[in-house]
């Protein structure tokens, strides 16, 4: 059994029918034990426990979904679009990587209470020589309590497809979070891999 970030697609009745992996492969859903229902003919970003079924010729014939949850995947907004201002409560990144049209993040938080996440678009620029877009983002994180006593994971998936405009060959992401060290840390994901700036 595997656990991965994927994009799932529903049919006319809202049932999930297929998935697109972050390797760019599309599979039919042969069985969905999760029972998730969504809007008709929609796509939804998920983290799923699943297994593949292999046909007699050795090819994958489809997948069986077990437990899954929807990731937090809103389109980034500029700072001025947040009515109450940008909130940056602390958190820590357990893992971060570029997927298929998404930036995937597994986040750990310590506070009790309700957590609200979003993504702040700090700036976008395009290098015409390389054809790459540089996207600067900050994690929006608001918490309804200041009690810190346990660890909890959150699964985020930042949409990036909207930055692949005409002439853009790739996206370099600068993703900043406020940490428990009372400082910002920036995760840079570009052609050369992952780099971290800050403490």
Structure summary:
With 199 residues, the chain is mainly beta. It folds into 2 domains: 2-70, OB fold (Dihydrolipoamide Acetyltransferase, E2P); 79-198, Sandwich (Immunoglobulin-like), CATH 2.60.40.
Describe the structure.
This is NigD-like C-terminal domain-containing protein. InterPro entries: NigD-like_C_dom_sf, NigD-like_N_sf, NigD_C. With about 200 residues, this protein is mainly beta. It folds into 2 domains: about 1-70, OB fold (Dihydrolipoamide Acetyltransferase, E2P) (Beta Barrel); about 80-199, NigD-like, C-terminal beta sandwich domain (Immunoglobulin-like), CATH 2.60.40. Helices cover about 0% and strands about 60% of the residues. The protein has no helices and 13 strands. The strands form 3 sheets. It has a 5-stranded mixed β-barrel. A hairpin with a 3-residue loop joins β6 (about 90-100) and β7. The mean pLDDT is about 90.
